[in-house]
Amino acid sequence: MGSSSAAPWKQLLLSSIQANSHLKHYSYFQLRFQDDGDKILINTDNRSRKIDELKHCPFAEICWYFTESWEQFRINGSVDVIDGTNPDPVKLEQREKSWFACSPKSRLQYMAPTPRLPSLSEPPSEIPSLDPSIGPVAAFCLLVLDPAQIDYLNLKSNERLIFTSGLSSDGKKLWTSEKVNP
């Protein structure tokens, strides 16, 4: 159907988010892109099981369905796990930037007890405090999803588009799109 160096699916997704923004249940995933590119940034707790799974198999998929517009996006690609042990200073700077982009209340969740461990019946005796000027705590992890393929399905218009990334002859990322039968 066509090809472009800009991510043609990105504007489609942003338009769908905007059109469905009045629905409270759609906002459980905050979409952030890396510096005007098409890589998706995700904050998470490195104590969760998904981090070990991604280190063994660095691929994931985000499935996003908009109930009112009947649109579905399946975004899959490779995931870069950036925790405090990452040796790349540029990636560590990106992690820190994501940390400070979070609200102080959001940052506190990374000081909570380890996810998936049983809670004690009595409340903790000490509420953790957080110095807002200090960088990321050890539990804070940044995931960077580099989309390889986006499958867009609109059930109202019976339209399906597949966007696939590749490399141009000069090594730059290139997107192709194909209209397929739903």
UniProtKB/TrEMBL annotation:
<protein>
    <recommendedName>
        <fullName>pyridoxal 5'-phosphate synthase</fullName>
        <ecNumber>1.4.3.5</ecNumber>
    </recommendedName>
</protein>
<dbReference type="GO" id="GO:0010181">
    <property type="term" value="F:FMN binding"/>
</dbReference>
<dbReference type="InterPro" id="IPR012349">
    <property type="entry name" value="Split_barrel_FMN-bd"/>
</dbReference>
<comment type="pathway">
    <text>Cofactor metabolism; pyridoxal 5'-phosphate salvage; pyridoxal 5'-phosphate from pyridoxine 5'-phosphate: step 1/1.</text>
</comment>
<dbReference type="GO" id="GO:0004733">
    <property type="term" value="F:pyridoxamine phosphate oxidase activity"/>
</dbReference>
<dbReference type="GO" id="GO:0008615">
    <property type="term" value="P:pyridoxine biosynthetic process"/>
</dbReference>
<feature type="domain" description="Pyridoxamine 5'-phosphate oxidase Alr4036 family FMN-binding">
    <location>
        <begin position="38"/>
        <end position="82"/>
    </location>
</feature>
<comment type="pathway">
    <text>Cofactor metabolism; pyridoxal 5'-phosphate salvage; pyridoxal 5'-phosphate from pyridoxamine 5'-phosphate: step 1/1.</text>
</comment>
<keyword id="KW-0560">Oxidoreductase</keyword>
<keyword id="KW-0288">FMN</keyword>
<dbReference type="Pfam" id="PF12766">
    <property type="entry name" value="Pyridox_oxase_2"/>
</dbReference>
<keyword id="KW-0285">Flavoprotein</keyword>
<dbReference type="InterPro" id="IPR024624">
    <property type="entry name" value="Pyridox_Oxase_Alr4036_FMN-bd"/>
</dbReference>
<dbReference type="InterPro" id="IPR000659">
    <property type="entry name" value="Pyridox_Oxase"/>
</dbReference>
